[in-house]
Design brief:
The protein is globular and about 55 Å long. About 35% of the residues lie in helices and about 20% in strands. With about 220 residues, the protein is α/β, with parallel strands linked by helices. Helix 5 packs parallel to helix 6 and helix 7 packs across helix 8. A 7-stranded mixed β-sheet has the order 4-6-7-8-3-9-10. The protein has a 3-stranded antiparallel β-sheet with strand order 2-1-5. It is built from 8 helices and 10 strands. Keywords: Cell membrane, Ion transport, Iron, Iron transport, Membrane, Transport. It holds the Pfam family AAA_21. Its main location: membrane. This is AAA family ATPase.
Length: about 220
């Protein structure tokens, strides 16, 4: 049983720039049903992934800066306010919204790095709640991302609903999660981790790190020259 069952966007009530992003355009046309305990949204920069997650968070009742549900009154400052609507299940509201840009301002774990505070936070999350996480891998080493993978998988197994925006090929490997990839030409659902852009890019780099690095360095010199 999901906390959020479906997301819809009224294109006429949203800013033009938001509707022009592939993620918001897709939801406006088709809606976005959430059918798995863990949903992983990935894709290139600028396709509207974080805008969609922030709109979901505000519609649920989180403050736009992020944090624990119900702690502060949510403000009407996200670009999809009034345009994005949710179909919700009967479960009582509880959870956490991790917004990458403001996480360190709202977390209780002062004096710790971004990555350390994310791991400390996720280790304390309770199962019966909704978690919306925007790029939680930021600042985490590969080993720490594997630990985060285990934590999020355990939450999903124990009754939580988790929606993650991520570029991490490690987090995209969470067992049983639905992977949704947003590209400039549309949205594809139900991908295997091996078929995602993030995984394929990392695989190509690891297969020939020196060759890829030299190629990209030469490309950058040509762009700047």
């Amino acid at each position: 049983m999901m906390f959020i069952e479906r997301v819809d966007v009224d294109a006429s009530a949203a800013p033009d720039w938001a509707v022009e992003t592939p993620a918001i355009s897709h939801v406006a046309e088709f809606g976005f049903a959430l059918t798995h305990p863990i949903t992983l949204i990935t894709g290139d920069n600028g396709v509207g992934k974080s805008t969609l997650l922030e709109g979901m968070a505000r519609a649920w009742g989180f403050t736009t800066e992020g944090g624990t549900w119900g702690v502060d009154k949510a403000g009407a400052h996200d670009p999809l306010y009034g345009a994005l609507s949710l179909v919700t299940g009967p479960r009582a509201k509880a959870g956490y919204f991790l917004r990458g840009e403001t996480h360190t301002r709202v977390t209780e774990f002062g004096g710790r790095s971004h990555g350390e505070s994310v791991l400390e936070l996720t280790s304390r999350l309770i199962p019966n709640a909704l978690y919306l996480l925007d790029e939680p891998e930021s600042g985490l080493s590969a080993v720490a991302q594997m630990a985060l993978l285990a934590q999020l998988h355990a939450l999903g197994e124990q009754g939580a609903q988790v929606v993650v925006v991520t570029h991490s090929p490690i987090l995209l490997g969470i067992p049983g999660a639905e992977i949704v990839e947003v590209a400039a030409d549309g949205v594809e659902r139900g991908l295997a981790v091996e078929d995602t852009l993030a995984y394929r890019a990392m695989r190509d780099f690891l297969s020939d790190p020196h060759g890829i690095a030299e190629f990209m360095a030469e490309w950058a010199e040509g762009e700047l020259g």
